[in-house]
Amino acid sequence: MTAARACAMLKHFVDALLIAAALCIGCLAEGPAADALPPAPVQPSPLFQMTAPEMRGRHKFWDVENRTLFTTVAALNATDFAVTRSNLQNGARELDPVTRLFSHSTAGLAVNFAGATAASIGLSYWFHKTGHHRLERITSIVNIGASTTAVTYSAAHR
Hints:
Largest sheet: none
Shape: elongated
Number of strands: 0
Number of helices: 6
Strand content: under 5%
Mean pLDDT: 81
Order of helices and strands: HHHHHH
Radius of gyration: 29 Å
């Protein structure tokens, strides 16, 4: 089968699908006159009612728990910056390939760790706005774990 023949068959298939959809929509539109039916009472849809667990998950972004997590993230990233900078000045080698790109200067290293902190808070905010409140907290917890591991490793290998 050639490409031109396959394209022609696909076009006919799409045309048939559109015609079938138009006919089905026309069939669904027919019904008794609106004045023949009694007015139905308006009730909220169960799809849009907020349940108790959903209400518990809602919170402000800058609540006490997030402020504590973000402060811890920033403190551990600052500690990681200080330990990494100290090790690099004493002849050590950066093992993280992303951080290695910025490790040739103190300013570059500071930008890397400040960017990691900002990225963690930004990702948490995005999760908050999309309603993923557990992921919002887990993002900071994972960053705290990674920074703690990096600081521990760097301090142990001075």
